[in-house]
Amino acid sequence: MEEQKDINPKDYEVGAVVGRFQLAEIHEAHKFLIDTVVNNHKKSIILLGVTRAVGSPEDPIRLPSRENVLDFQSRLFMLQEMYPNTIIQSIQDKDNDQIWSESLDNKIREVFPNEKVLLYGGRDSFIPHYKGLFDVKSLDPKIYVSATMQRNSISKEVLKDPNFRKGQIYYAYQQTPTLYTNYKIALIEDDKVLFFKKNGYDHVNKKFKLLSGLAGINDPSLEVGAKRVIGNLIGSIEVNTSYEMSNSNIDFGNKTNRVMNVLVTAEKMYGPLKPQGNYDIKWITINELMSEGFMVENIEKDDFEYVQHLIKKYRKK
After folding, report:
1. Whether 15 and 163 share a structural domain
2. Could you say which of 20, 170, 235, 248 would form a disulfide bridge with 274 (CB–CB 3.0 to 4.6 Å)?
3. Is 202 or 255 the better-scoring residue by pLDDT?
4. pLDDT digits (tens, 9 = 90+) for 158-168
5. Are residues 144 and 212 part of one domain?
6. Is the model's pLDDT at 250 over the cut of 80?
7. Residue 135's pLDDT band (boundaries 50, 70, 90)?
């Protein structure tokens, strides 16, 4: 909704602020915004944006991020301390601006069913996305404070205060248990499979492993993610990838989080192998892998199931 230039705040009984306020403390730009609303109106309300949960109603999952690290209750306490006479409500994110705007209007009308309401927003606010019924006013504080930069600065500091440690524990317990994906990649050329072994004093006696690496947040698919891992380990080569199987990684994980191994075969088309780290690579034929005792002596145990799957697959060809 476009802001009306001739708005007189004194004509409105209620002033409403919409924001996230994802900070340890309210900064000067936020104070300017809320103080203006409180001073202009006898009644005021703050609508705190809350990230939308995914999953089902019976099993919702909150997906916190660095931009939305604080939950509603934490921000409620922070704002109530400074503005005890202002009503504070949550407003959940929606994928559709029209639906979100209707939800915002309904939230306000639940508290103020008949009053005339003026919505306020600061720099980079909700205003361009608002499609609702109320008038809006944009406030541009003279001081610009980057909340992102403040959060980044806080993330680098460890405090001795026990409340700091309590906050860490609280946040950890708010997390939804996570299943991480780890690629196990069988790079195939003719009848050979590529393995690698790290070098260094702590890896002298290590056996060979399949190429592996964690899935990335920007991987659009398992196959594309596997190609990224291949590029990180042995350079950019052309491959045809396909999903084979998956199972739980018993070596990594804890009571909260687990790791799922996903086996992806990648048939090498062309391109030179250029190891990108301090490790050796080795092509091993299917016949060698099948020979008695070879896998036990040369291959890491956690790759046995995948290698046996490959042997069965390629023996049928």
Report:
1. yes
2. 235
3. 255
4. 888 898 898 88
5. no
6. no
7. very high
Residue 59: domain span: 9-174
> Within 13 Å of residue 149, how many CA atoms lie on the same side as its CB?
4
One-letter amino acid for residue 131 of the chain: K
Is pTM beyond 0.85? Reply is no
Report the pLDDT averaged over residues 24-52: 91
What number is the average pLDDT over the span 25-49?
Answer: 92
Indicate which CATH number applies to the domain containing 158.
3.40.50.620
Q: State the pLDDT confidence band at 102, using cuts at 50, 70 and 90.
A: very high
Q: Are residues 154 and 197 in the same domain?
A: no
Beta bridge partners of 281: 196
Is residue 203 scored above 50 in pLDDT? Answer: no
Looking at the domain assignment, is residue 2 inside a domain?
no
The answer to whether residue 68 is domain-embedded is yes
DSSP letters of the chain?
Answer: -PPPTT--GGG-SEEEEEE---SSS--HHHHHHHHHHHHH-SEEEEEEEEPPPEEETTEEE----TTS-S-HHHHHHHHHHH-TTSEEEEEE--SSHHHHHHHHHHHHHHH-SSS-EEEEE-TT-SGGG--SSSEEEE---SS---HHHHHHHHTT-----HHHHHHHHHHHHHSPP-EEEEEEEEEEETTEEEEEEE-SGGGTT--BEEEEEEPPTT-SSHHHHHHHHHHHHH---EEEEEEEEEEEEEEEE-SS-EEEEEEEEEEEEE------SSEEEEEEEHHHHHSTTHHHHHB-GGGHHHHHHHHHHHH--
Of 294, 23, 266, the residue nearest 154 (C-alpha): 23
